[in-house]
Amino acid sequence: MSNLFIPNPKEVESIHILREVAAQFEKPVLLFSGGKDSITLVRLAQKAFYPSRIPFPLLHIDTGHNFPETIEFRDQLVAELGLELIVRNVQDSIDQGKVTEERGRYASRNTLQTTTLLDAIEEFKFDACIGGARRDEEKARAKERVFSVRDDFGQWDEKNQRPELFDMLNGQIEQGQNVRVFPISNWTELDVWEYIKTENIQIPSIYFAHKREVFFRDGMIWTANEHVFREEHEQVEEKMVRFRTVGDMTCTAAVLSEATSLEDVVNEIRASTISERGARIDDKRSEAAMEKRKKVGYF
Amino acid sequence: MENRKLIKIATAGSVDDGKSTLIGRLLYDTKSLTTDKLEAIEKTSKQRGFDYLDFSLATDGLVAEREQGITIDVAHIYFNTEKTNFIVADTPGHVEYTRNMVTGASTSQVAIILIDARKGVIEQTNRHFFISNLLRMGHVVVAINKMDLVDYDEDVFLKIREDFEALVEKSDFKSEQITFIPISALKGENIAKKSDLMPWYVGNTLLDHLEVLEPEDLQQSSLARFPVQYVVRPKTEAFHDFRGFAGKLYGGNLKVGDDVTILPSFTTSKIKSIQFFDQEYSEATPGSSITITLEDEVNISRGDMLVKSSEVPHSEKSISATICQVNNKPLRVGQKYTLQHGVNRVLAKVESISSKVHTDFSGEEASDQLGLNDIGKVNFRLSKPIHFDAYTVNKANGSFILIDEGSYDTVSVGFIEI
């Protein structure tokens, strides 16, 4: 038996939050993107309820434009841990005429996900959706609560948020409302990477440097792929790259990198001078991009 | 995650004290502003016709704030140095926003109170220190900013320190937990770099001070309290009879073999194991999220509390507390609320309001209600006893929130008195 348990303050805070979700809500769900943050959440949930199984399912909103490596990874993780996985497809929302596919140079299914997500929440009557968003990612996220109440339309009212005092979480909601829960709110990108390294957590291969067909636009590196709009003059080249986030292929830019191991990645993040969302094409649309998307129910 | 020291800071200052600039400066000086963010700041500063970098743009997040040029809610900002991780809860200092500072301070160990060197100690400063004292912050840094606008004059600094010390006299805050630092956030004097322009100041720069600081922590010096958050019952073949009690430990250590009493039933047992994930430990320290199993089969549910049998807390159906109202809806005598004490909920009725407290240390007055941002002394009657300590002895077990029964909003925070 080992002796004194010395907690990692950020880890125990996240575990405290996950236990509150399980205790305060009837139908929680973990929003799983296959990205490192949601993978970290799965590990934290495993720890929170051990030796019980994670007491809520995973929900993946599939844009249809995911990196295949991510989907493969997702299915493997679910099988290994015996988790329940629900997948809902943006393609279905398009086919049902609920949303219209964007066209042109910057066409992306990223914003369309919101509709599919809100429909899934209604279909399963989820009252709490656990997400891997962090406050350090973006200015609008910096003001997000741990328990963030959304109305029937999934809207976020940033001026009317419940104050969160000490570590007491108030998950009481009215019929039709739901709560977005962010257990790793207080983690930074470096925290997540260091945790993945210490815990030896498996992550999709696209996080590590690999050779890929890409093209350059607006100073960013785009994946050359059937799902990504490309002008004739935009030359495809093979480069050694990796991804810092794994969103939809159409809005996730790669970075040039030689980091092939976790150790390399952590060192690269430490030395990095570009923020993680700096490689998110969706945030570049305007200074208030994220805040606007959040107000209408984005993750 | 590497185990760096974690320091949580709440900032307080009036609208024009340069608080956002200070935070932006801390980010800049610790190289936490990434190139893309720095470029955005450069671009916007230029658009607005400034001949300097407006670091406040680094933190003012929401559209409404950018329009008004003031911070309107609590924002969290992260940066780190080689040895320490910092979390800053940036709380607005505007008159009406007592609520936000209380919120930000509740999750922080250190308060930085900003004072404009030209204005000195003003009514706002009184309020900020009042709240720091009420919440028993582990440490207060009084940052006297805009020294560049008073020619870096030592006399200005000394006068402000004297005025602030007069304030401290009126409180019961320990003066050794307060540090005064003269700074210029705009010019970066005494933030990360020691100022050549203020040779008369011999103390640490703000950043050095925050790094070496050991804030006083009430949680580490009191009695063990373990509120049960969740009962773990796997019901699998491998763990057929497993019944674990998951929760966060506050106040003191718990060890395997400790005699414990379970509240509210007052049944007793012994700790059989302390677990974190798939590891067993013989002892846990405060702040740990752990799972405990007991020697005996005891009926325990969420909201119950495990304590050492020799250290039982107060159990009462009537409590008195200092209340800070954090919602527009006023608190009135006769009103009923859900009272959440840690993870436990009971019904509470406001029996009487003893007084409304002036947040500038000028005393108190009689009042029949508490409005948003008011602080007052209130007596409650509860549907069931809660098991508590005074806030000044154990923060976690001495605080609660009130939840409105109609809107379910968090409307008040309470600090229990004995």
TrEMBL record, chain A:
**In terms of domain of life, where is this protein from?**
Bacteria
Q: Which GO terms describe its biological process?
A: sulfate assimilation
Gene name of the record: cysD
Mind telling me what this protein is named? sulfate adenylyltransferase
Tell me where in this chain the Phosphoadenosine phosphosulphate reductase domain is found: 28-253
* Molecular functions (GO terms): ATP binding; sulfate adenylyltransferase (ATP) activity
Q: Which UniProt keywords apply?
A: ATP-binding, Nucleotide-binding, Nucleotidyltransferase, Transferase
Taxonomically, what lineage is the organism?
Bacteria, Pseudomonadati, Bacteroidota, Cytophagia, Cytophagales
Tell me its EC number(s), please.
Answer: 2.7.7.4
TrEMBL record, chain B:
Keyword Transport set for record:
no
Q: What class of enzyme is it?
A: transferase
Any one Gene Ontology molecular-function term assigned to this protein's record: ATP binding
The UniProt record lists the Tr-type G domain at 4-218
Q: Does the keyword Cell membrane apply?
A: no
Q: Name one Pfam family in it.
A: GTP-eEF1A_C
Residues annotated as transmembrane: none
Q: Which UniProt keywords apply?
A: ATP-binding, GTP-binding, Nucleotide-binding, Nucleotidyltransferase, Transferase
- Give the EC number: 2.7.7.4
Q: Name one GO biological process term.
A: sulfur compound metabolic process
Q: Which PROSITE patterns match?
A: G_TR_1, G_TR_2
The molecule here is called sulfate adenylyltransferase
